[in-house]
Design goal:
Length: 395
């Protein structure tokens, strides 16, 4: 008796999608070659968006090689859940991504990194250019937004202020990635800012309105308030770039404000910090985006790390103090060091100490701390950032 032929198993696209959503970006990209229908499904913007939304639950920390300059040569994306599971795990360099030139990471948005490259010769002015890169798919754009700028020939009090500082964001109203660059320079007895914006759709730089209040990081060479420039270079949230700024400074007390640039209208507004924040001494407050909210961290008494969260963007009354971590629980006392919160979720905090470049995992419930094993001379403070893998196409 002949065996009846096997019938091809039909799997509906809805079920295929649910299975693919469980896979990593690397594996999904490989499956594009299974068939034309799979390739079309994986390339569909709705599939890409849903996969990205699910990937938000499994963030990575993007770590770079520690150097004495802001330039990086390679980066290592490392899953947060592996660190939480085993703080002693060794971060492997096998998963590193190398660059052919030194560059700076401007920021991360929708799974893309914005990279800033620089070249300088003795006979020409310094040249900058941008490149957008998806580490998960290992695809990158061509060189974009090339421009030159003048740097001072000798060190003085304004050295470095003529160099631009960059921030990266996404304008959902036009589905466009934008890069904001600014500098602050002395003009006779006053200071003035110049702000440029790069719109990927136009592939050019345009001048926009100057800052109403200067961001904090332009003071890096005049005061020691922003000892780490990149952390206060501006953070992206919901179509806005936000900078911590200093308002009417005095000798002992600094008043702070947050300057927010709407990438859609290219206009500014001011957000007030948490209540009582203005009375704190001048000691390295940091503005970050954590849990999809604007957050401010500082240590007002140099004895504890405090984190505030603006639960509803733009609403002053929504500022909430999430936690205070005493240095005593970390076996530290009166340490003049910066602390950067890298990740917060429920009762778990990952943060790093500046001077010893030491990352910690802290449990807010039982007040226990674990030191993360540090290797490969990776930078856990200045350059570390949250990164989420995605299938988003490189522009």
């Amino acid at each position: 008796m002949d065996t009846p032929p096997l019938q091809a198993l039909f799997v509906p696209n809805e079920l295929v999608s649910e299975i693919l959503f469980l896979l990593s970006v690397k594996n999904i990209v490989r499956l594009k070659c299974v068939s034309k229908s799979w390739n079309a499904l994986i390339s569909d913007p709705l599939f890409v968006q849903k996969h990205h939304n699910l990937s938000l639950q499994n963030p990575h920390l993007m770590l770079s090689w520690k150097t004495i300059t802001p330039a990086v040569k390679f980066v290592v994306p490392f899953p947060v859940h592996l660190l939480l599971k085993n703080p002693s795990i060794t971060v492997s360099s096998n998963k590193s991504h190398d660059f052919e030139h030194n560059c700076r990471i401007v920021g991360s948005c929708n799974g893309l990194l914005c990279l800033l490259f620089n070249s300088e010769t003795e006979t020409s002015k310094p040249k900058n250019w941008l490149r957008f890169w998806n580490p998960a798919t290992r695809t990158s754009s061509k060189n974009l937004g090339s421009f030159r700028y003048r740097t001072p020939r000798r060190y003085d009090n304004s050295y470095g202020l003529s160099c631009y500082k960059f921030s990266f964001g996404y304008d959902a109203s036009t589905l466009t990635y934008k890069v904001v660059a600014f500098r602050v320079r002395r003009n006779n007895d006053s200071w003035e800012s110049r702000v440029k914006i790069f719109n990927l759709g136009d592939n050019c730089w345009r001048n926009i309105q100057s800052f109403p209040i200067f961001p904090l990081n332009w003071l890096q060479n005049r005061r020691r308030l922003a000892s780490n420039c990149r952390l206060n270079d501006g953070v992206h949230l919901s179509g806005t770039i936000n900078w911590l700024a200093m308002y009417k400074p005095t000798t002992h007390v600094v008043q702070f404000v947050i300057v927010s640039l709407d990438l859609s209208t290219e206009s500014y507004k001011k957000l007030l910090p948490p209540p009582g924040f203005n009375e704190m001494p001048c000691f390295q407050p940091l503005l970050r985006v954590l849990m999809d909210s604007l957050c401010l961290s500082h240590n007002p008494k140099k004895t504890e790390l405090v984190l505030w969260q603006m639960k509803e963007y733009g609403v002053q009354e929504s500022w909430t103090q999430l936690f205070k971590i005493s240095y005593k629980n970390l076996q530290m006392q009166n340490i003049d060091a910066g602390f950067a919160c890298l990740y917060v979720n429920s009762d778990t905090v990952i943060f790093a100490n500046k001077y010893c470049n030491q990352p910690y995992i802290y449990n807010l419930k039982d007040k226990t701390v674990k030191r993360i094993k540090v290797g490969l001379n990776l930078d856990w403070f200045d350059q570390a950032m949250v990164y989420v893998e995605s299938l988003v196409s490189v522009p």
